[in-house]
């Protein structure tokens, strides 16, 4: 092989390209299609002239219709969330009972019996073990219910219909219609949603999809929303409506997230990421009856356990950090208390508090551990540790005890609402940030995607707090 | 080119090839052959992948689910195969990231066999990609998947004449129910070992002036790279002005 000959070949191709003219690409594509048509005509028969895909197109007429498409979408989302809220309650308290009431005292007893030094006992059992136990008790039940249902919908073929329904809204906001699919993936995991943006051809629209994916509530945040809504929103209405109220508020937050996604996409496409909306073909695949048990199995293995494992991996060191900052004293104040007090002013301005802000810093590695962290820190601040020591989580066998602790920490309905808003609007977790960097290979866009939601979160919670206090 | 003639009733039994098969999961050291899995979105590539490797790659009923390559392996008759699941694409002519991943692997990864998974219900549209892949590689198997749905839709496909027209073996499967997978494995091994030699279809309906230019160019390419099998496809890409292919030609990555 010689360089010169290759240059000659390229030269020749340039020359020939001029001769054959502009239509080359179209001609070639037409040629391929003509070949395909001939081959199909010779080999494929549709028997009896029966009409194909009858049932599919009937279902599609309903679920993608202008009037019913959106209500059906919200109905399905509502049913899935409702089953998750209702179903997660009992297993959660059973797990909490097991891990916190039974195993934890046993571990403590064992540590005493081998006369383990107090700091090692505290660090391992009260720090690492409790954080992990909490994450499992809080996270596992809702995930084990939510993911299989989401996967069943996915296998059935409903996701592309969602994309079809939302296409017009995305187009109006200057984004790609396929962003609806990456958004749906984001409802499972934002990092997965960011990777999924590879299906979008145009770099401009792909960036928009990446930056705004964080507005899809991910699985790490669903349990936070569901728990806080159940404790606080559910409590302001008569108890027979409490789960409905909690459900509606969680759906409200999810829809608000979609609203922010459209708004931010629109703002980006009008300012820094200007450009035309590209057209695309969206294939509506045939509905396929999901194979129930297999789906259940794979979604447990692929999603629930992997996500849970990730949460545990991040919770263990976070638990250690919380214990350490609560037990290392500078002067006569622990580091945690000092941080909380210095964040408190800003936190209260946002209708939140110092505990929540510190929890969000500790929980940057994983959104899943926000609630456990908040609880541990609240216990620390309020000093209701029941003699167990600082930075220690203790028995919380029901959602109502969790509520009691938070109320003791000075939480109001405003704190709850703003926490739900802030949980929607804050920086992505470190895994997602890293994924964004890998996908965009740009520090600038990674920073934009990380900081933009926090700023929005500050603005929104601040406004809500100020308006709330007016009345 | 046809699937080997049926010798006995055993050949049609799904368990026929099962004894020689060992699913290796992600354990793909020291493989003998590389097999690529390509096809349109949502034709069940990941399901075929799982059926062959015993892995449980997440599958989903929406186009564009696989955006990266997944790798796994299986062993059949003492030979180890590395299987690469590529993102689904409608074409190899444009350049989104997922299409590039697929095209680059077929072109530069030079798999020993490329399995093209096609939806039997939408064969005409699927053939667009099949015909493009056949311009790039001459060792391919068409996996006609979703046959169960095709049956429900009263679609009948003559696999033997289709195999003849395409010049590659055609295997009908319903990967979801593991139907046709043993036959697919057998066919892959025969193509990999050269027992089956493919004579892939090349795009015919090209206007004469373009055909002339392509021929002129591919003769020159063949002169420079004797024995190259996809000179015609390279000529297509050069005429299109594909800078990536021009670069690959310069650096010698293509041969």
Can you tag this structure with a few keywords?
heterodimer, A: 471 residues, mainly alpha, two-stranded antiparallel sheet, 19 helices, B: 255 residues, alpha/beta, seven-stranded mixed β-sheet, 18% strand, globular
Describe the structure.
The complex is a heterodimer of chains A (471) and B (255). Chain A has helices spanning 3-20, 24-43, 54-63, 69-113, 118-156, 159-172, 179-188, 190-196, 203-212, 222-233, 242-270, 292-327, 335-349, 354-362, 370-382, 399-408, 413-424, 430-440, 443-470, and strands at residues 44-46, 329-330, 333-334. Chain A is mainly α and 471 residues long. In chain A, strand 2 (329-330) and strand 3 (333-334) form a beta hairpin. Chain A is globular, with a radius of gyration of 27 Å. In chain A, 46% of the residues are buried. Chain B is an alpha/beta fold. Helices cover 38% and strands 18% of the residues of chain B. Chain B is built from nine helices and eight strands. Chain B has a seven-stranded mixed β-sheet with strand order 1-3-4-2-5-6-8, with helices on both faces. In chain B, helix 7 (208-224) packs across helix 8 (231-240). Chain B is globular. The two termini of chain B are 27 Å apart. At the A-B interface, helix 1, helix 2, strand 1, helix 5 and helix 12 of A face helix 3, strand 7, helix 5, helix 7 and helix 8 of B. Strand 1 of chain A pairs antiparallel with strand 7 of chain B.
Number of contiguous helices of chain A: 19
- Large-scale geometry of chain A: globular
Number of strands of chain B: 8
Low-confidence stretches of chain A: 385-391
Mean pLDDT of chain B, to the nearest integer, reads 82
Mean pLDDT of chain A: 83
């Amino acid at each position: 092989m010689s360089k010169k000959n290759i240059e000659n070949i390229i030269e020749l191709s340039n020359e020939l390209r001029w001769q054959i003219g502009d239509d080359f690409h179209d001609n070639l594509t037409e040629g391929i299609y003509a070949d395909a048509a001939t081959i199909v005509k010779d080999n494929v028969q549709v028997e009896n002239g029966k009409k194909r895909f009858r049932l599919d197109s009937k279902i599609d007429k309903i679920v993608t219709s202008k009037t019913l498409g959106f209500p059906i979408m919200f109905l399905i989302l509502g049913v899935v969330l409702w089953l998750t809220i209702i179903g997660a309650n009992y297993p959660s308290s059973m797990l909490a009972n097991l891990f916190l009431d039974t195993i934890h005292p046993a571990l403590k007893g064992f540590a005493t019996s081998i006369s383990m030094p107090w700091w090692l006992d505290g660090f391992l059992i009260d720090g690492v073990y409790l954080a992990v136990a909490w994450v499992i008790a809080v996270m596992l039940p809702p995930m084990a219910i939510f993911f299989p249902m989401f996967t069943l919908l996915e296998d059935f073929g409903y996701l592309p219909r969602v994309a079809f329904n939302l296409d017009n809204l995305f187009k109006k906001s200057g984004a790609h219609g396929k962003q609806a699919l990456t958004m749906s993936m984001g409802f499972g995991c934002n990092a997965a949603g960011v990777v999924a943006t590879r299906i979008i051809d145009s770099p401009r629209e792909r960036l928009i999809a990446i930056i705004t994916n964080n507005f899809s509530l991910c699985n790490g945040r669903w349990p936070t929303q569901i728990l806080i809504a159940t404790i606080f929103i559910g409590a302001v209405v008569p108890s027979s409506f409490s789960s409905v109220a909690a459900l509606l508020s969680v759906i409200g937050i999810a829809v608000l997230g979609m609203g922010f996604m459209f708004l931010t996409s629109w703002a980006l496409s009008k300012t820094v990421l200007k450009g035309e909306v590209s057209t695309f073909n969206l294939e509506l695949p045939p509905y396929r009856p999901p194979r129930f048990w297999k789906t259940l199995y794979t979604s447990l293995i692929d999603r629930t356990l992997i996500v849970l494992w990730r949460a545990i991996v991040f919770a263990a060191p976070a638990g250690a950090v919380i214990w350490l900052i609560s037990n290392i004293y500078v002067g006569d104040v622990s580091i945690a208390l000092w941080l909380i007090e210095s964040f408190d002013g800003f936190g209260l301005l946002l209708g939140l508090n110092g505990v929540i802000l510190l929890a969000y810093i500790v929980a940057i590695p994983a959104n899943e551990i926000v609630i456990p962290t908040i609880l541990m820190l609240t216990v620390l601040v309020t000093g209701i540790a029941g003699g167990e020591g600082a930075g220690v989580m203790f028995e919380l066998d029901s959602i109502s005890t969790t509520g009691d602790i938070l109320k003791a920490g000075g939480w109001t309905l405003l704190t709850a609402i703003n926490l739900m808003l802030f949980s929607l609007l804050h920086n992505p977790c470190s895994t997602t940030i890293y994924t964004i960097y890998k996908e965009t290979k740009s520090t600038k866009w990674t920073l934009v995607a990380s900081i933009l939601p926090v700023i929005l979160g500050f603005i929104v919670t601040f406004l809500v707090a100020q308006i709330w206090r007016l009345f | 080119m046809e699937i080997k003639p049926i010798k006995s009733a055993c050949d049609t039994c799904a368990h026929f090839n099962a004894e020689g098969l060992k699913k290796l999961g992600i354990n793909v050291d020291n493989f003998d052959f590389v097999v690529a899995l390509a096809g349109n979105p949502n034709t069940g590539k990941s399901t075929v992948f799982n059926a062959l490797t015993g892995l449980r790659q997440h599958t989903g009923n929406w186009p564009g689910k696989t955006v990266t390559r997944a790798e796994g392996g299986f062993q059949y008759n003492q030979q180890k195969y590395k299987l690469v699941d590529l993102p689904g694409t409608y074409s190899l002519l444009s350049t989104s990231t997922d299409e590039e991943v697929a095209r680059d692997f077929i072109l530069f990864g030079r798999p020993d066999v490329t399995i093209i998974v096609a939806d039997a219900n939408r064969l005409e549209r699927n053939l667009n990609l099949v015909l493009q892949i056949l311009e790039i590689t001459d060792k391919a198997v068409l996996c006609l998947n979703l046959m169960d749905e095709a049956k429900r839709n009263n679609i009948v496909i003559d696999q033997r004449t289709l195999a003849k027209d395409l010049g590659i073996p055609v295997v009908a499967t319903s990967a979801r129910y593991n139907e046709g997978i043993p036959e697919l494995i057998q066919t892959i091994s025969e193509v990999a070992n050269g027992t089956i030699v493919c004579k892939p279809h090349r795009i015919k309906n090209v206007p004469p002036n373009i055909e002339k230019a392509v021929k002129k160019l591919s003769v020159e390419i063949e002169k420079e790279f004797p024995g190259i099998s996809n000179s015609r496809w390279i000529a297509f890409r050069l005429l299109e002005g594909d800078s990536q292919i021009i670069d690959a030609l310069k650096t010698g990555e293509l041969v």
